[in-house]
Write a structure and sequence with these properties.
Number of strands: 29
Number of helices: 16
Largest sheet: 8 strands, parallel
Strand content: 15-25%
Helix content: 10-25%
Distance between the termini: 59 Å
Radius of gyration: 26 Å
């Protein structure tokens, strides 16, 4: 494994140096180096010219705690060598002076008996200015992908095996515990990979999406259920079953050329129970309830009472039970109150932003870690990348809680999250209820009308992420009971609200979980055409039903209109209370007005347009963004059938 890791990082370094066209050669220092390595040094490399000149290295090697470390490289100094409770760790606090040049140098570890070990470390030049890391925003439409279920472009990496010469027999060593493919099992690995996404970027781009969020791609060396990616066992390694670090960088580079942003799914709250450090934890408080784990006692899981973060009456035991409990018994809870753990997580996030050239981070289970740490984490990233974007998952239907986590919130406890975007589970549910319920005074479309009124509470509504569904909840087509027109109406609302929309892969072909509603394995069904032997192909529309093709076409047209609509991106929002089973929402910017009409009537109906006079559409020509048919906005409009109609004054 040591040899494999050494080769892996050496190849990765070579690839990225070769790919960089912007390194300033004059800013590279040449010194004599040994090109040697020890078991682990993390982060595996770093960069010059960060605002924060500190760097903390986690050193893992047998008995390394008994050594004295030294570095002889201009601009780099060791401020402190921190010994851990385990003799096999050392944490080095370095300072990288502003004058430091990029280059490699040896870290020398000297033991009392005279033995010396060395590790060659590299400081790189940054590939672009910090301000050029542009995050996602309301101009974007994000395509969420579960990579194992999207497309398998490289079958050679399916089982995650490597040949190592460290094994005396030279045999193939399956160093990942789950090393089989079974597409018949919803909870097994199916073989999708990074190249599967890269190979279909043209499809994603042509559909009208502008950003990609993939669920985690880091190594999950768990014995089962590893496909989802959220039980990470190595925070600096791409899961070999998904590909390599070079594959991930290629995905980012090709995406960028197509104008697609890349968002990384990260997990600061927990790791997988098979994480390498769980066999030798550096400190006695590296994970919460560590003593129970080490003594093979009962594993204490979270009480999941997320409201305790804001509840002014919450007991200490409830607060601690929320933040310190393990998410589930196979996901140890990381103790961010340990300053070395906190620094490790922050540096890991920055390492991935810089290495891949990310446009954003989606942070899993946002309310679960220590919330002051999460403020520091987000603040540290945004300090280095002022135009970057981070969205945090707060699964709450309460707008008060959703708003609490957004940067700029007027929180009575003074808490500042530094988090640009939160997730709007509240409005997601309001749209579903509005379309499923019968129209009465307080049911039906009024749910959207009143739900949107909650925007007064948010620091920045347009920076909140909205979605019809995701990888953890029933497909929108299932939530709307298989009603195609209701699904179109829901999508039209999610795409025209003052929000950042995210769409889960397969929504465009009416993927569903009717057989077992809410079942995660079924929700994350394989995307048709992404795997050898598929009878249908959503990428080409071959074999799709009429309804699937129609939905795919509808979403493609809507997304591609939205891509260029400044009114939707940043315009004023005006809506009118539901009337006769209809709801009118307007987005307005200068001479562009977008009108989204939601009509739940199963029979034709005429609507008097006098109540919408304030919008100023009288006598104007509007175009249907789906059919491209034109109308003149006069005294009334006839809605011939149930469904969505979206008009625009932008005729070209």
């Amino acid at each position: 494994m040591k040899l494999i890791r050494s080769i892996f990082y050496s190849v990765s370094i070579f690839v990225f140096i070769a790919c960089s066209n912007t390194e300033i050669k004059e800013n590279v220092s040449e010194v004599s180096i040994s090109n040697t390595s020890i078991e682990r040094v993390e982060p595996p490399n770093w960069w010059i010219d960060f605002k924060d000149t500190s760097l903390q290295l986690l050193i893992k090697e047998e008995n390394i705690g008994f050594s004295e470390a030294s570095i002889s490289y201009a601009g780099v100094s060791i401020k402190k060598a921190n010994k851990a409770n385990s003799k096999n760790y050392l944490f080095l606090d370095l300072n990288i002076d502003k004058s430091t040049k990029a280059g490699k140098f040896d870290i020398i570890f000297t033991f009392k008996d005279g033995l010396k070990k060395t590790h060659t470390y590299e400081l790189k030049s940054r590939e672009k200015l910090a301000e050029d890391y542009i995050g996602f925003n309301s101009t974007d439409a994000i395509y969420l992908i579960t990579p194992d279920r999207f497309a398998n472009a490289d079958t050679t990496n399916d089982i995650g095996s490597r040949i190592t010469t460290e094994n005396e027999t030279g045999e193939v060593v399956h160093f990942l515990k789950e090393n089989t493919i079974n597409r018949a099992d919803d909870y097994a690995r199916h073989g999708g990979d990074i190249k599967g996404i890269t190979n279909h970027l043209e499809y994603i781009d042509e559909m009208g999406f502008t950003a990609i969020w993939s669920s985690p791609l880091l190594t999950n060396d768990m014995p089962k259920g590893s496909y989802h990616g959220y039980a990470i066992t190595d925070l600096y390694e791409i899961d070999p079953r998904f590909g390599t670090l070079a594959d991930y960088r290629e995905l980012a580079d090709v995406s960028r050329k197509k104008g697609l942003k890349l968002i990384m799914d990260q997990v600061a709250n927990h790791c997988g129970s098979e994480h390498w450090w769980m066999k030798d934890l550096p400190f006695r408080d590296w994970v919460n309830h560590q003593e129970n784990f080490e003594n093979k006692g009962d594993l204490i899981t979270s009480n999941h009472r997320r409201t305790s973060n804001q509840d002014i009456y919450a007991s200490k035991v409830d607060k601690q039970g929320m933040t310190d409990g393990w998410f589930v018994s196979t996901m140890p809870d990381l103790n961010q109150k340990n300053p070395f753990m906190a620094k490790y997580i922050i540096q890991n996030s920055i390492w991935w932003v810089e290495t891949i050239g990310l446009s954003g981070i989606r942070q899993d289970t946002y309310p679960y870690p220590d919330k002051q740490f999460m403020s520091n984490w987000a603040g540290s990233i945004m300090k280095e990348y002022p135009n970057f974007s981070i969205v945090g998952e707060e699964w709450s239907y309460n707008p008060l809680l959703i708003g609490y986590w957004q940067k700029g919130a007027n929180n009575k406890d003074g808490y500042e999250s530094n988090l640009k975007s939160t997730m709007d589970f509240a409005m997601q549910q309001k749209v579903v209820d509005a379309l499923n319920e019968k129209e009465t005074w307080d049911t039906g479309l009024v749910k959207v009308y009143e739900g949107l009124a909650n925007d007064f509470h948010y620091a920045s509504p347009k920076d909140i992420m909205i979605f019809p569904d995701n990888h953890d909840m029933s497909r929108i087509f299932t939530q709307l009971k298989g009603d195609v027109e209701n699904t179109k109406m829901a999508l039209s609302l999610y795409l025209t609200l003052p929000r950042i929309p995210q769409i889960y892969y397969g929504t465009e072909i009416l993927m569903n979980d009717f057989k077992k509603p809410g079942d995660h394995g079924l929700i994350r069904t394989d995307f048709s055409g992404g795997f050898k032997g598929d009878k249908t192909n959503a990428f080409t529309s071959e074999g799709l039903s009429k309804e699937q093709k129609d939905m795919q076409s509808f979403l493609k047209k809507f997304l591609n209109y939205r891509k260029h609509s400044k009114a939707i991106h940043q315009g004023k929002t005006v809506h009118f209370s539901p009337f006769k089973g209809t709801y009118f929402l307007f987005r307005i910017l200068e001479d562009e007005i977008v009108v989204n009409i939601i009509n739940k009537n199963n029979v034709p109906i005429s609507i008097n347009l006098e109540r919408y006079l304030e919008i100023g559409l009288q006598g104007k020509t509007l175009k249907n963004i789906i059919t491209e048919e034109s109308i003149i906005w006069e005294n009334e409009i006839e809605l011939k059938k149930k469904g969505n109609i979206t008009f625009t004054t932008k005729l070209n």
